[in-house]
Amino acid sequence: MAKLIFYYDLLSQPCRALYMFFKKANVPFEGKVVDLLRGEQFTPEFEALNPFKKVPVINDKGFVLTESIAILRYITRTHNVADHWYPKDSVKQAQVDEYLEWQHTNTRSDCALYFLHKVLWPVMNGKPVNEQKVAQLEKKMIITLDLIENVWLKNKKFLCGNEISISDIFGICEIDHTSKYIFSK
Question: Which residues cross the membrane (predicted)?
Fold first, then answer.
């Protein structure tokens, strides 16, 4: 049986989330690192696989999928993974979906923008940090982190209930990436 091929770079938070999920859920895969800092996502070979020139990407016996949340949902339907990752129960699944949809414009957006402005772009461009912009982004991110703590995690062990799900992996990958920069002041 051909293995699932997973194209990734662990610099990417969605790639890290998928990688962690595959490992924890015992999903067999062949990993292919795409070095983002070297621009490997812009090669003609990779563009033929993903015209969006981004990771993550999977190739499952010729079926190519290029968005992390779609990949997670596909894997839970096509591989034997524990139900708690993405429950079959409609209500529980809707709760996981609710966070996954919310995180795109909140956890993902706010944490990633902060990290890009505070760390990545200054390093890549050799220019100083725009402290005013970083301060604005930090305020927005802290509001999001407060919502995670006081709404999503209110009276629950995990974001969507009392069992870990794929929403928790996505949440932690976004938060962990920036937390060392928030608290290192």
Answer: none
pLDDT for position 116: 87
Percent above pLDDT 70 for the chain: 95
- pTM here is 0.89
Instruction: Collect all residues with Cβ–Cβ distance below 8 Å to 94 and sequence separation of at least 6.
Output: none
Q: What tens digit of pLDDT does each residue of 150-174 get?
A: 999 999 999 999 999 999 999 999 8
Q: Please give the single-letter amino acid code of residue 47.
A: E
d(Cα 38, Cα 32) in Å, to the nearest integer?
A: 15
Residue 145 C-beta-side C-alpha neighbours within 13 Å: 18
Residue among 160, 14, 182, 180 at smallest CA distance from 89? 160
- CB of 85 within 8 A of CB of 71? no
Instruction: State the pLDDT confidence band at 2, using cuts at 50, 70 and 90.
Output: low
Kindly report the number of other CB atoms within 10 A of residue 11's CB atom.
14
Q: Give, in degrees to the nearest 5, the angle at Cα 69 between 66 and 75.
A: 85
- The Cα angle at residue 95 between residues 22 and 24, in degrees rounded to 5: 15
